[in-house]
Design a protein that fits this description.
single chain; 322 residues; alpha+beta; seven-stranded mixed sheet; 30% helix; globular
């Protein structure tokens, strides 16, 4: 990738025409390097750049860059006092970066957001990619007094925090067990949690979150975006709203566990009292009726004989009532 690609993209992200000569002068390089950077923006970032003789270059769809100062201005208490924010243009994985920081004494409340990930990961090893500027990709490091054995249900609590923040922004999302946020029945956001520490405590947790603001590009599952739902939110405003709610929920979880959120989570569930199929990496799928979650976040499924079974892992999907 051209070393000037991000610098040129920052010049173009306002959606106006900029001449190659002006950009070259601003960046102190040749017009040939500008042309190469524009080529990299199209080929490697997947963005469209218009080139018009006499006018220069223009990005087809302008976007808002993440800005630490703007996010901090929009944070509410206690998030404003809790989080230390950093933004990087490009990294392999925000989760991988913070897991390394966690192992070397990284700060509680450290947040790393990336404009672009080259090796983003989702649950079950799935690849999580997003077009540049089309979403939010960030991770946060949180240190719990609780041990690893007491963190059951954390991914559900994080999902609820996202749902609460989005509901306040008039986004009608639902939650799918254990850690997906749905809009119109399709995945709007996902959560990846990685743990380190002792069974009895303390524990360090890296929480990775990816959310689609616009069409993310080629993906291997049905997804939704805020833009297609007609919802216009700035990326900095949205990140601040999510972090503000996460600070509250994580602090409560540290004191009370998932039990404090169980009823709220069930009210947000997309599959409550619906026929579902639970699939596993090994073994036959299980069919039943979703009947909420236990106080440790485990899924409760009513079987055909009326018995209630508890599941701690699996992939849930709706099935026909027939």
């Amino acid at each position: 990738m051209s070393e000037h690609a991000f610098a040129v993209l920052r010049q173009l992200s306002d959606g106006r025409f900029h001449s190659g000569a002006d950009i070259a002068r601003e960046l102190g390089c040749s017009r040939t390097l500008i042309w190469q950077a524009v080529h990299a923006i199209e080929q490697e970032f997947g963005l469209t750049v218009f080139s018009v003789r006499g006018q220069g270059y223009k990005l087809a769809e302008p976007f808002e860059w993440l800005d630490v100062a703007r996010v901090r201005e929009a944070l509410t208490s206690p998030a404003a006092e809790t989080f230390t924010l950093a933004v990087t243009e490009r990294t392999d994985s925000t989760n991988s970066q913070l897991m390394a920081r966690a192992a070397s004494g990284g700060l509680h409340g450290l947040v790393l957001a990336a404009e672009m990930q080259t090796a983003g990961r989702g649950r079950l090893g799935r690849r999580w990619q997003n077009r540049l500027g089309a979403g939010l990709t960030f991770s946060l490091l949180w240190r719990f007094d609780r041990g690893l054995a007491e963190l059951a249900g954390l991914s559900l609590a994080v999902g609820l925090a996202l749902a609460r923040a989005l509901h306040r922004l008039a986004v009608p999302v639902q939650l799918k067990w254990p850690n997906d946020v749905l809009l119109n029945g399709r995945k709007l956001a996902g959560i990846l949690i990685e743990l380190s520490g002792d069974a009895l405590g303390p524990a360090a947790v890296v929480i990775g979150i990816g959310l689609n603001i616009d069409n993310p590009g080629a993906v291997d599952q049905p997804v939704a975006s805020l833009a297609e739902a007609g919802i216009q939110l700035g990326r900095n405003q949205l990140l601040a709203a999510l972090l503000s709610e996460l600070a509250v929920v994580l602090d409560t979880f540290n004191r009370e566990g998932f039990a404090a959120f169980r009823e709220d989570w069930i009210r947000c569930s997309s599959h409550e009292n619906a026929p579902v199929r639970l699939s596993f990496s090994h073994g036959e799928p299980v069919d039943g009726i979703a009947r909420g979650v236990a106080e440790n976040g485990a899924l409760q499924v009513e079987m055909a004989d009326g018995s209630l079974r508890i599941f701690h892992a699996g992939e849930v999907s709706l099935r026909s009532r027939a």
